[in-house]
Amino acid sequence: MMLTLYDCLESGNGHKVRHLLSLLGRDFKLVLKDIHKGETRTPAFLALNPDGRIPLLQLEDGRCLAESNAILCYLAEGTPFLPTEPFARAQTLSWLFWEQYNHEPTIAVARFWVHHLEMTEARKTQLEELHEKGRAALALMDRHLQAQDWLVGDGPTIADLSLYSYSSVSEEGGIDRAPYPALQAWLTRIEAQPGFIAMEPWSG
Amino acid sequence: MMLTLYDCLESGNGHKVRHLLSLLGRDFKLVLKDIHKGETRTPAFLALNPDGRIPLLQLEDGRCLAESNAILCYLAEGTPFLPTEPFARAQTLSWLFWEQYNHEPTIAVARFWVHHLEMTEARKTQLEELHEKGRAALALMDRHLQAQDWLVGDGPTIADLSLYSYSSVSEEGGIDRAPYPALQAWLTRIEAQPGFIAMEPWSG
User: Fold this and answer.
1) β pairing state of A56-58 and A3-7
2) Checking DSSP bridges between strand A28-32 and strand A3-7, what pairing results, if any?
3) Which one, A151, B16, B96, B199, has least CB within 10 Å?
């Protein structure tokens, strides 16, 4: 018996979880779901996750946990990736919530649109708004990382892992990272960790 | 010396935090910021929160914590509002992340648009999309609450508090709650808790 991860390889939300599992050296069974074929909206999958999304972690006893950042917290508990000191823990969570509200909905959504949606004139205008907000998110991270090597404290946490995945492929959604050298150096630091795994290239 | 909360009374994200502080019986200093006058984007405020948003919790020692749900976790640690059992804790976090990704960006944003933005034809179409997604979010909660009184476990947690605030005023954004009786009963249970505080009416 082991952990099962329901996932889709092009998802950065899924990558976060696979990345942490790799850094922790944990075995798991990977079950791929094609989100473009509705495989996360079948009655069988909705019984596991009523929200119909990957990643979804199924524990050894069959219970399921949704939301990538909640999965990170669950898996990281008791490891250096989730600080125990109350304020450092709170800052880690703050970055995780910021990621889901400001970063993923702009940078990840721009990447999805560029690859999967027909670019109507209305969407082009909305894509420009996503790019503007996405650049603001990367700029905020860059300013923060000018003063410190990791988002929280002196070493990598799940805040870094959560924000790494879509940051590392921002150009796939049309957002250049050249203006953010501190962010780039941080990406390189993460990529140097033993157990690092990269985002998958688009399968097409 | 006490906690300081930078806030805006019409914000449900701020309400969550004031609600928990009230339930816990904690004193705090409230500093109101008018988001419509740019008071969270001044250099002085950005020095406290580079993201330029309320609510922002300032600790006794001056350190600041952003993101409403991270603030809830910080304040609830060691209280019954944040379970310690690992899976229940993970489920609580899962609802908090779900709230910021699926619930707030639809139900809270619809409420904001209706009150503050001119309704162009393009916005009317987008508002309909927000309503559809917001109703899906409330329907998911309603199905979950048909089987249990609280979102996680046998008593109220910060998952309930986080999702209460904007759910309780969904009609202000144009989303009727009549189709969701289990959700309505859950709102009533929360309102019966000692220390409950309601969302503020719109100041205009």
Assistant:
1) antiparallel
2) parallel
3) B199
Contact assessment for residue B100 and residue B12, using Cβ atoms and an 8 Å cutoff: no
Number of A–B residue contacts, CB under 8 Å: 93
Lowest mean pLDDT among A81-85, A138-142, B53-57, B118-122: B118-122
pLDDT greater than 90 at residue B145: yes
Q: What is the dihedral of CA A64, A68, A72, A73, to 10 degrees?
A: -80
Q: What is the rounded (10 degree) CA torsion for B98, B103, B108, B111?
A: 180
> Mean pLDDT across the stretch A163-175?
97
Mean pLDDT of chain B: 96
Q: Which CATH class is domain B86-191?
A: mainly alpha
Residue A61 has pLDDT above 80, yes or no: yes
Provide the token pair at B86. 């690992």
pLDDT single digits (tens) B69-102:
999 999 999 999 999 999 999 999 999 999 999 9
Q: What is the torsional sign of CA B189, B191, B194, B196?
A: positive
pLDDT at B201: 78
Shortest CA distance from B52: residue in chain A: A140
| pLDDT, tens digit, 9 for 90 and up, residues B99-113 | 999 999 999 999 999
Taking contacts as CB-CB distances below 8 angstroms, the residues of chain A near B77 are 86, 89
Instruction: Enumerate the residues of chain B whose CB falls inside 8 A of the CB of residue A67.
Output: 93-94, 97-98, 101
Structure tokens at B85: 């059992």
Return the bridge partners of B57, or none: B5, B65
The pTM score is 0.97
Q: For a pLDDT cut of 90, what percent of chain A falls above it?
A: 91
The chain B residue lying nearest A125, using CA atoms, is B122
Structural domain boundaries in chain A: 3-76, 86-191
> Which residues does chain A have within 8 Å of residue B50's beta carbon, measured at their own beta carbons?
140, 143-144
Are B97 and A94 in contact (CB < 8 Å)? no
Q: CA-to-CA distance for A164 and A191, rounded, in angstroms?
A: 9
Provide ipTM, 2 decimals.
Answer: 0.97
Give the CATH H-level superfamily of domain A3-76.
Answer: Glutaredoxin (3.40.30.10)
Q: Per the CB < 8 Å rule, is B66 touching A98?
A: yes
**Coil, strand, or helix at residue A155?**
coil
A3-76 and A86-191 in the same fold: no
Q: Which of A51, A89, A94 sits opposite B66 (nearest CB)?
A: A94
